[in-house]
Design brief:
Elements (H helix, E strand, L loop, with lengths): L16 H18 L6 H14 L3 E5 L4 H9 L7 E4 L6 H8 L3 E4 L10 H6 L5 E7 L8 H11 L2 E5 L7 E2 L2 E2 L6 E5 L13 E5 L2 H10 L4 E3 L2 E2 L10 H11 L2 H19 L12 E2 L5 E4 L3 H10 L29 H9 E4 L7 H15 L1
Parallel strand pairs: 2-3, 2-4, 4-5, 5-8
Antiparallel strand pairs: 1-9, 6-7, 6-12, 8-9, 10-11, 13-14
Helix pairs in contact: 1-8, 2-8, 3-4, 9-12
């Protein structure tokens, strides 16, 4: 296998730039010369393209992925006295967005595939429940058939936190169009990434779309009047121009991530637990998270051999200091808490070469030998 001893970073954002330099600089110069920096034509173009990608009627660009969850919840009237069921193993914004909308996050444990367990969701529904938040964690779609059936049975909104899952599909349908709305992050670390913070909301709901056009710009209904108090959360024209360039490459990048995942799956499945696409799933592998009881020692071994890795996430949300007021304690989410001790993310970004992926496998295999 590979003999190259050069270090392999966990992520390398800068390596994306050179292949697109001319296209990106031309797009940036066009915006700079126009002077149209807020909600310019590039934003409209991006929204149309992203709606088509997600198979939805609408896409609304906002400032970041967290606002892409908070603002639509407010638009649905979710707030004080309401509960939203969320997984405890996601990035903290999944739960914090519920709290920042004024509602209470209620945690339901996850299955071994890292996504929220529909059977656990059923146990957490009360008269105050207003929505279920499905997080397509790691870029792997959650069990949308089961979750939608639960939501429909109880008259609940189904929210998709699709921050890590742009391009993922469930039963052949893109994520982002299964629920009332979906929130996507376009943070620099995401598969489709801006040069800073950015987010987008997808929905088929006409009323929510009209609300969001106002909500992302202080609640303005025109230049001089506001319909309600809201945030300033607009997708910058400059970021939209950059994203329009990168959108052309998304399918290619996804194929490369899936190629890298396939190498890991083929070579490491007899050493560690590896994620794979289950029936109906088309994962985009934002992260490639293995599980092993020897996680800490393996991570140190990777570091010693020049291979970057990460843990997503070492402290579950229900045990964070910010969540103390909710009253959860160790042992309340056994699957999530077990995974926090065994999960390890390997490099998966699309610019990795096959040789580099094989070298990571060599290092992992050497540890277990």
């Amino acid at each position: 296998m590979a003999t190259n001893t050069q270090s392999i970073p966990y992520v390398d954002i800068g390596s994306q730039f050179e292949p697109m330099r001319e296209e990106l600089m031309a797009a940036i110069e066009e915006v700079m010369a126009s002077g149209w920096f807020i909600l310019g034509p590039q934003v409209n173009e991006f929204e149309e393209k992203f709606a088509a990608l997600s198979g939805t009627k609408y896409a609304i660009g906002v400032a970041n992925g967290t606002d892409a969850l908070i603002l639509p919840m407010k638009g649905l009237g979710i707030g004080e006295g309401d509960e939203v069921i969320v997984p405890p193993n996601s990035y903290l914004a999944s739960a914090s967005s519920v709290a920042l909308a004024g509602a209470t996050p209620v945690f339901a444990d996850v299955a071994n595939n890292y996504n929220i367990d529909p059977e656990e969701v059923k146990k957490k529904i009360t008269s105050r429940t207003k929505a279920i938040m499905a997080v397509h964690l790691t870029g792997r779609p959650a069990d949308m058939d089961a979750l939608k059936a639960i939501a429909d049975e109880h008259g609940l909104h189904l929210i998709e936190d699709s921050a890590q899952a742009v391009g993922a599909k469930y039963n052949g349908k893109p994520v982002g169009g299964f629920g009332t709305f979906a929130g996507f992050s376009l943070h620099p670390l995401k598969n489709l990434n801006a040069a800073g913070d950015a987010g987008v909301i997808t929905t088929n709901d006409d009323n929510l779309y009209e609300y969001m056009l106002k909500a992302r710009t202080h609640g303005h209904k025109n230049r001089n009047e506001v319909s309600f108090w809201s945030l300033n959360s607009r997708l910058d024209t400059l970021q939209a121009a950059i994203l329009n360039v990168k959108l052309k490459y998304l399918d290619e990048w996804t194929a490369l991530r899936r190629r890298n995942a396939a190498i890991y799956q083929a070579r490491l499945a007899d050493k560690v637990w590896v994620p794979t696409d289950a029936e109906k799933e088309f994962a985009v592998y934002h992260t490639f998270i293995i599980q092993t009881d020897r996680r800490d020692a393996l991570q140190q071994h990777l570091t010693d051999h020049g291979v970057g890795s990460a843990i997503h996430y070492p402290v579950p949300i229900h045990l964070q200091e910010a969540a103390q007021y909710l009253g959860y304690k160790p042992g309340d989410m056994p699957m999530t808490e077990k995974q926090c001790e065994t999960i390890l993310s390997l490099p998966i970004f699309h610019n990795l070469t096959e040789e580099q992926v094989h070298r990571v496998c060599d290092v992992v295999e050497a540890f277990f030998q």
